[in-house]
Amino acid sequence: MTDTIDDDLFEIPAPTAGECDFQVGDHVVYPHHGAGVVKSRAPRKVQGEEREYLKIRILHSDMTVHVPCDQASSVGLRRIIDEETMRKVLGVLEGPCTDMPKNWNRRFKYNREKIKTGNIYELAEVVRNLATRENEKGLSTGEKQMFTRTKKVLASELMYALEKTEDEAEEYLDGILAPPADGAPQAIAPADADDEVDADEAEAELALQD
Predict the structure, then answer these.
(1) What are phi and psi of 96, to 5 degrees?
(2) Average pLDDT for consecutive 10-residue bins of the chain (210 residues)?
(3) Of 162, 75, 11, which is closest to residue 65 (Cα–Cα)?
(4) Which candidate in 31, 115, 134, 205 could, as Cys together with 76 as Cys, close a disulfide (CB 3.0–4.6 Å)?
(5) With the CA atoms of 108, 113, 114 and 119 taken in that order, what torsion angle do they form, in degrees rounded to the nearest 10?
(6) Alpha-carbon gap, residue 30 to 58, rounded angstroms
(7) 31 with 93: CB under 8 angstroms?
(8) d(CA 4, CA 113)
(9) What is the spatial distance between Cα 124 and Cα 118, in angstroms, rounded to a whole number?
(10) How far apart are CA 108 and CA 24, in angstroms?
């Protein structure tokens, strides 16, 4: 079943004229949800007000998002990255892990804020860092869910940028993130004491991503 979201965000700055140039068939990226295709651009009446909306189909999650055309830039809607940007993203994914807070809650919020920017380099950094931590120490339940979700979002854009199928894009990304083959499997170190978190609190944090 396809989910549908009407994206009327609150307190968004007034748009500038002519900023919405997305057309039917364009491959676009919607932050938090991933890459998709503009299926239509047409007026819709919502809460008594008629506005022009972009109907975007997010393939990997089987979701349809309706975004007001005059808010496209404000919500971070953008086109799929080009070849040069793709090379830079791959460079981030293959780079070393950067320092993150040791405390689970602070680390989760730190990564969540990066994801919320909609910047693909920030997203790639989060994916890379979580992959590295998973290989070295393992991830908490909340972080595992964040890792799975961010990989899906990133892979959905790689799918279009590299002209791959959804499965091929995910396999390609997993191959980049795989730890170096050095013989014996790497032991998982015990979780840090600061990583312990109440399950209810983890769920509450995850809910704040949406």
Answers:
(1) -75, 155
(2) 43 45 93 90 90 92 90 88 92 91 86 88 94 89 92 92 91 90 44 44 44
(3) 75
(4) 31
(5) 150
(6) 9
(7) no
(8) 25
(9) 11
(10) 36
